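Below is a filled-in request sheet from our internal design queue. Each sheet records the structural input a requester submitted and the sequence that came back. We keep these sheets so that new team members can see what a complete request looks like end to end.

REQUESTER: design group, bay 2
PRIORITY: normal
MODE: inverse folding
CHAIN LENGTH: 486
BACKBONE (tokenized):
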């Protein structure tokens, strides 16, 4: 499926790139056709201008007028095919129809003669036109009108800005909003005005389209739903894979939990079973010391088994949304002092030392005493489990006042000098069934529920818990709880 999604995205991206390129090419081709048509129309206008000027001059030559002596007539200068110049004057009252007919015949003869000199006439027009100011040859209003008309004819009905520049880039005139930037270079098109002009008199028409990107995007917008659907499928696929891996990991942790639970239950049950078998021995029954010893063993192993059962029962709390709490007001300093006093024997058994630094002046909290005690016991028990063998265990439990944003709270810190944890373990230690890599040692037992239980209980009591740890240095758990005012 991953390869399928990669292939699908690749095909879509390539298709969109090709379509964008095709649209760009079509756009550029349409603009080039439009600009070429504009320059062609300007050249036609200029040729028409000179022809009309020539015709007007000829009409003034043939039109009847009054001579200096008071007679009415027509003056006409012409050149024969042999190159001889003549000056012809017709005087008297000439009939208009006859005049018009004569004019048509004479004009026909003149243009038939000049047809052979067409190339020379065109060269003369070019030489004369290049001397005219460009603002007269290509009027800004006419250029704008021609551009709009030709672009519309090519299906490019989008706004544009233009300017006419000389061969060194100097602007002759421009539209009001012609302010191109570097990013507009891709949408800039240049066309030579009057390409037959001498090179030193060349002018260029520059046109750019501020909304070209939007125009191209609008033409390929229909591809967006395809990308959206593909993205939804990709997110669904990723979520499915993540959930599958989480389920796999949870299954593995549950299997580890069952294995640990079986091992933890097996030892006390075996011990109790062995003690029960010894009670069937008459020799044992006759020895009060042996009976006392066996009774003590059964009692200790029963307590150990009960403790493990309670650990398992804690797991059921995680399946419920809310835990049943019996809240009461207690003094955190007093409660912690009692816990550390009880735990002192266990710490000293391993050659360690525990101290309580109760610096909080206002330590009244509203908690479930049993669960709060279990929270502190779990953290202290972990400190003992994950101690370092090369240094004596040092445990400290401190309390202090904490005021933030007007809220008064108590901060409880449990600090040890144990083996510590890696950074990647710190993010997962509060997950149920999770045990740090060093926790799989043979001499450290557990179900991976202790810290998950601590996290849930602190949250249920309205507090927060965080952890700081450094490998082979130690670990610090920080609990903050709201203060209850009497």
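RETURNED SEQUENCE:
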């Amino acid at each position: 499926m991953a390869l399928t999604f990669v292939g699908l995205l690749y095909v879509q991206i390539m298709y969109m790139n090709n379509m964008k390129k095709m649209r760009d090419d079509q756009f550029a081709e349409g603009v080039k056709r439009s600009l070429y048509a504009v320059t062609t129309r300007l050249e036609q206008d200029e040729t028409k201008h000179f022809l009309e000027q020539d015709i007007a001059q000829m009409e003034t030559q043939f039109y009847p007028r009054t001579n200096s002596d008071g007679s009415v007539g027509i003056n006409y200068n012409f050149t024969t095919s042999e190159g001889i110049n003549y000056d012809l004057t017709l005087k008297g009252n000439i009939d208009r129809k006859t005049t018009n007919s004569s004019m048509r015949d004479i004009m026909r003869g003149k243009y038939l003669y000049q047809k052979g000199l067409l190339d020379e006439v065109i060269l003369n027009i070019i030489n004369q036109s290049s001397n005219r100011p460009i603002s007269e040859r290509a009027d800004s209003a006419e250029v704008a009108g021609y551009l709009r008309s030709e672009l519309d004819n090519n299906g490019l009905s989008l706004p544009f800005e233009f300017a006419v520049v000389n061969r060194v880039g100097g602007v002759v005139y421009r539209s009001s909003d012609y302010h191109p930037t570097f990013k507009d270079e891709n949408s800039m098109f240049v066309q030579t005005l009057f390409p037959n002009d001498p090179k030193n008199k060349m002018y260029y028409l520059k046109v750019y389209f501020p909304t070209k990107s939007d125009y191209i995007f609008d033409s390929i917008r229909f591809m967006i739903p395809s990308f959206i659907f593909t993205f939804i499928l990709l997110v669904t696929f990723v979520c499915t894979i993540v959930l599958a891996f989480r389920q796999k990991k949870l299954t593995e942790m549950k299997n580890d939990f069952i294995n640990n639970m079986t091992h933890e239950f097996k030892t006390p049950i075996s011990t109790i079973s062995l003690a029960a078998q010894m009670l069937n021995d008459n020799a044992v029954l006759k020895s009060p010391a042996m009976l006392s010893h066996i009774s003590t063993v059964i009692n200790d192993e029963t307590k150990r088994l009960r403790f493990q059962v309670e650990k398992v029962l804690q797991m059921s709390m995680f399946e419920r949304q809310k835990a049943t709490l019996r809240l009461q007001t207690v003094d955190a300093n007093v409660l912690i002092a009692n816990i550390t006093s009880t735990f002192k024997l266990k710490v000293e058994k391993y050659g360690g030392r525990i101290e309580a630094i109760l610096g909080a002046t206002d330590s009244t909290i509203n908690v479930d005493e049993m669960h709060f005690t279990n929270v502190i016991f779990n953290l202290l028990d972990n400190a003992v489990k994950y101690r370092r063998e090369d240094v004596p265990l040092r445990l400290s439990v401190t309390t202090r006042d904490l005021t933030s944003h007007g809220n008064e709270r108590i901060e409880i810190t449990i600090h040890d000098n144990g083996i510590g944890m890696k950074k990647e373990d710190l993010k997962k230690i509060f997950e149920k069934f999770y045990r740090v890599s060093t926790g799989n040692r043979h001499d450290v037992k557990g179900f991976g529920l202790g810290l998950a239980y601590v996290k849930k209980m602190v949250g249920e009591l309205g507090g927060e818990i965080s952890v700081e740890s450094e490998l082979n240095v130690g670990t610090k758990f920080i609990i903050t709880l709201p203060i209850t005012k009497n």
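SHEET NOTES:
- The radius of gyration is 51 Å.
- The chain has 13 helices and 14 strands.
FILED BY: M.R.
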